[in-house]
Amino acid sequence: xxxxxxxxxxxxxxxxxxxxxxxxxxxxxxxxxxxxxxxxxxxxxxxxxxxxxxxxxxxxxxxxxxxxxxxxxxxxxxxxxxxxxxxxxxxxxxxxxxxxxxxxxxxxxxxxxxxxxxxxxxxxxxxxxxxxxxxxxxxxxxxxxxxxxxxxxxxxxxxxxxxxxxxxxxxxxxxxxxxxxxxxxxxxxxxxxxxxxxxxxxxxxxxxxxxxxxxxxxxxxxxxxxx
Length: 227
Description:
Elements: H1 19-30, E1 33-39, E2 52-57, H2 63-71, E3 89-94, E4 102-105, H3 116-132, E5 136-144, H4 151-163, E6 167-172, H5 181-193, E7 199-205, H6 214-225
């Protein structure tokens, strides 16, 4: 019998987050958040200020929807049905300046119609940010749970490994696969990243529509930000 979705967010041998971690995550994201700025190139990056957590993923994987779900604000991050629309690094911080954390929405990749020079520019921009951002604590790489890892996801994993940036896989739209499908994608994805040097263990399955896994992701971010 397949396990229910809330039991496939973590590998079988991983301990679930503690009640303290879950509460820390809830409190962190319960406060209002604001858009700080968008950076179209490295020279426009904001000053280094406390820990940063970044979200990466293919175009239309659901990054903006996930960020909005985490903070409980419908329109904090702009969503679009047009692939490749987000071309900047977008920075978000809590209204409460005592909350020392920045969320970064990275430009989506994998848009098939993008010309090669645009893809190359994206690669230089993002790799420059990853390699040089000393306050970047972790990248959460979003993968559509209906499709699993694609070829260009593997390319981004290799980029993160080269940059020596810790990353963890987050499955989006986890309410969409048919019965048993989510568990299979979790297993296949975990196996694919098991030997990668910068991969953080554990797969978090989420749905911005149903709220599945958002508490686990909030707890993971709160813990990572204070490590």
